[in-house]
Design brief:
The complex is a heterodimer of chains A (367) and B (325). Chain A has two domains: 326 residues, Rossmann fold; 35 residues. Chain A has 367 residues and is an alpha/beta fold. Chain A has a six-stranded parallel sheet with strand order 1-7-8-4-3-2, sandwiched between helices. Chain A has a two-stranded antiparallel ribbon with strand order 5-6. Chain A is built from 15 helices and eight strands. Chain B has 325 residues and is an alpha/beta fold. Chain B has two domains: 179 residues, Rossmann fold, CATH 3.40.50.970; 127 residues, Rossmann fold, CATH 3.40.50. Chain B is 36% helix and 21% strand. In chain B, the strands form three sheets. In chain B, strands 3-2-4-5-7-6-12 form a seven-stranded mixed sheet, with helices on both faces. A five-stranded mixed sheet of chain B has the order 9-11-10-13-14, with helices on both faces. Chain B has a two-stranded antiparallel ribbon with strand order 1-8. In chain B, helix 7 crosses helix 11. Chain B starts with a strand and ends with a helix. The relative contact order of chain B is 0.12. Classes of the chains: A alpha/beta (367), B alpha/beta (325). The interface between A and B is large, with 41 and 42 residues.
Chain lengths: 367, 325
């Protein structure tokens, strides 16, 4: 399957007969939009880097870096329309932030204060992170089935028709849930885009063990349209996913997009990638950095250094702010253990909550 | 309206009335459409409500539960049929790691009104995986409500209440008793969803059970009566939350108790009930709480099921033992 790419690793334009139809879409983007994409990538990386530092300093229990994967994430995030819904895995910091999740809310999960972090009703359709690998593919498909049952897709009006994006990776592609999601999406003609970031490593197991074909090739066996894109090329990721999302929303046709990318950091801060992958491989992917590529593209278009340095200044503020939040954040009340297990009061849990309060009071505290 | 209905028809009527009352109620499952399910519990509902409301799904239990979760996020109230008890496990992760925890993960800001119907239990002479009692796994899982009606009237009303619940409900159906008839009144619910109910009054021994086992306990109570022992039977209609008040009240009166179930006894609902009753009724007890259960072995081939499953004689043996104290 041909991989769509518009920008070379240094940001210079690649124009050929294979990608000219994509350039006809990309050429309509304004420099303001390009700069916004770059900004989202730079701010996310600053946040991500500082969160990693905070973990190393013992302030977060765990961190999940997305460094190196910002290009594809920016492309698809900007391709989504207001009415769309996003089902992330746990590494889509840029994407959920773009929908309105605050970086602090992401950090709250990893400092052990919450399993959720935000209310999807307040984050323009960004659903919660999901830690069980691939599980969200089914939730997204069910949600998209509901979109179709509601008649909220397939009217042919892209400004109103809804689509759903679900994110997972090469590792999750081996899960049964991911296959069942493709089956249900195809059977019920659900308006969903499977956004599969192939970052080459499922912790320590390479994608060659997950699949002997490209992941995109698998989708056709399920009757799902597929494409492959350079996932470190934000522009290519944008134009291809924009078209696929509009096909999903207009034609109730599920779509599968494999983004060829690389996890520059560890799987999580508990991981040690030096044990399973070579520094040559890492260095070769660092040279394909999505942020440098976008910066090179914008420089060639005459965007001045003042624009870049303004973004860098803002990025420093983002990092400082997340540090301030993390160091100043409070511990949740123990009521959080009991209060949301069911939607209404549960006698047994109320008793246990009371028993805990009595036990704590028995040490002679505030009571 | 009051009529005599078998449990399967009472469940069917409940789903039909719920679907007529609320457009967001959907049925999902394998073979539930034209066939009406392998037990015909959804018979006629696809013809009445159409393919948009009654979904003959692909054969994939994780897919059924997982997409039901997504549909609930979208505002639907899916009622999922699992074809047989032993086939729920491919969907187990979606039930215990996702469905059960979703409300908590969302801090109560999103409801997950999904009903999972599971025909359970033995006495039907079927092949492996078709006669199990997995309800203990679900009752052990925080965030799920687990209920198990034993009568036709309860089947109707508990299904209506389960569909109206904003929390996920695991709905265990007594498949051996699907065709047992009982009076169903559609005029109003007699009990709340999670109440334990005294099915028969008595004074000497309290017999506790749920689902099809309640029928065995009633049979045992009738035999004991002839032998001069008065048994009170308590139907634990809800396994989570579990309403202990009627159990405690009964045991304070009788001082003797037998808890019966089809599932293996080790780390089971019967164990939990016995432990709780000795905590709450210690000074009322005249004898240890006895458990009668399936053996701690896989459900046997059908020719041995009558040996494996507790019947009235096994219950009466336990009654003799508690009466001996």
């Amino acid at each position: 399957m041909t991989q769509t790419r518009l920008l070379d690793v240094d940001g210079s334009e690649i124009r050929n007969t294979d990608n000219e139809r994509w350039w006809s879409v990309a050429d309509d983007l304004t420099d303001e939009q390009h700069v916004e994409m770059l900004r989202s990538m730079v701010l996310t990386r600053a946040f991500d880097t500082e969160a990693g530092n905070l973990q190393r300093q013992g302030k977060l229990g765990l961190w999940v870096p997305s460094i190196g994967q910002e290009g594809g994430q920016a492309g698809v995030a900007f391709a989504m329309r207001d009415q769309d819904t996003l089902f992330p895995s746990y590494r889509e910091h840029l994407m959920v932030h773009q929908r309105g999740v605050r970086f602090e809310q992401i950090v709250d999960i990893f400092r052990g204060a919450t399993h959720g972090g935000w209310d999807p009703a307040e984050t323009r359709g960004a659903r919660l992170y999901s830690l069980v690998i691939g599980t969200q593919s089914l939730h997204a498909t069910g949600y998209a089935m509901g979109v179709r049952f509601d008649g909220a897709s397939g009217t042919g009006d892209p400004e109103a028709d809804e689509a759903v994006v679900v994110c997972y990776g090469d590792g999750a592609s081996s899960q049964g849930d991911a296959s069942e999601a493709l089956i249900f999406a195809a059977s019920y003609e659900a308006p969903v885009l499977f956004m599969v970031q192939n970052n080459k490593w499922a912790i320590s197991v390479p994608s060659s063990v997950q699949s002997r074909t490209s992941l995109a090739q698998r989708a056709s066996g399920f009757g799902v349209s597929a494409a492959s894109v350079d996932g470190n090329d934000a522009l290519a990721s944008y134009v291809v996913s924009r078209a696929m999302l509009d096909a999903a929303r207009s034609e109730n046709a599920p779509q599968y997009l494999e983004l060829d990318t690389y996890r520059i950091g560890a799987h999580t801060t508990s991981d040690d990638p030096t044990k399973y992958r070579s520094s040559d491989e890492l260095e070769s992917w660092k040279r394909r950095d999505p942020i440098e590529r976008m910066r090179g593209f914008l420089r060639a278009r005459g965007i001045g250094d003042d624009v870049f340095s303004a973004i860098d200044t803002e990025a420093k503020d983002v990092a400082a702010e997340i540090r301030r939040h993390t160091l100043g954040a409070s511990t949740p009340s123990s009521d959080e253990i009991f209060d949301f297990v069911y939607t209404d009061a549960n006698a047994s849990l109320e008793e246990q909550k009371l028993a805990l309060a009595r036990f704590e009071a028995s040490f002679g505290g505030d009571e | 309206m009051t009529e005599q209905l078998p449990i399967a028809k009472a469940l069917n009527l409940a789903m039909r009335d719920a679907m007529a009352a609320d457009d967001s109620v959907l049925l999902m499952g394998e073979d539930i459409g034209d066939l009406g399910g392998v037990f015909r519990v959804t018979d006629g509902l696809k013809a009445e409500f159409g393919t948009g409301r009654v979904l003959d799904t692909p054969l994939a239990e994780a897919g059924i539960i997982g997409t039901a979760i997504g549909l609930a996020m979208r505002g639907y109230r899916p009622v999922c049929e699992i074809q047989f008890d032993g086939f729920v496990y491919p969907g187990f992760d979606q039930i215990v790691s996702q469905l059960a925890k979703m409300t908590n993960r969302h801090r109560g800001r999103q409801a997950f009104p999904v009903v999972v119907r599971i025909p359970h239990g033995g006495h039907i002479g079927a092949v492996e995986h078709h006669q199990e009692s997995p309800e203990g796994y679900f009752a052990h899982t925080s965030g799920l409500r687990v209920v198990a009606p034993s009568t036709a009237n309860d089947a109707y009303w508990m299904m209506r209440q389960a569909i109206e619940s904003n929390d996920p409900v695991i709905f265990m159906e007594p498949k051996a008793k699907y065709w047992a008839k009982g009076e169903v009144s559609t005029e109003g619910a007699q009990y709340a969803l999670h109440e334990s109910v005294v099915a028969k009054q008595g004074t000497d021994v309290t017999l506790i059970g749920h689902s099809a086992m309640v029928h065995v306990l009633m049979q045992a109570a009738a035999i004991a009566e002839n032998e001069g022992v008065s048994c009170e039977v308590v139907d634990v209609r809800s396994l989570s939350p579990l309403d202990y008040e009627p159990l405690v009240e009964s045991l304070r009166k009788t001082g003797r108790c037998v808890v019966a179930q089809e599932a293996p006894g080790h780390v089971s609902l019967g164990s939990e009930i016995a432990a709780t009753l000795q905590e709450r009724c210690f000074y009322s007890l005249e004898a240890p709480v006895m458990r009668v259960s399936g053996f701690d072995a896989p459900f046997p081939p059908a020719q041995l099921e009558a040996v494996y499953l507790p019947d009235a004689d096994r219950v009466l043996d336990a009654v003799d033992r508690v009466m001996a104290y």
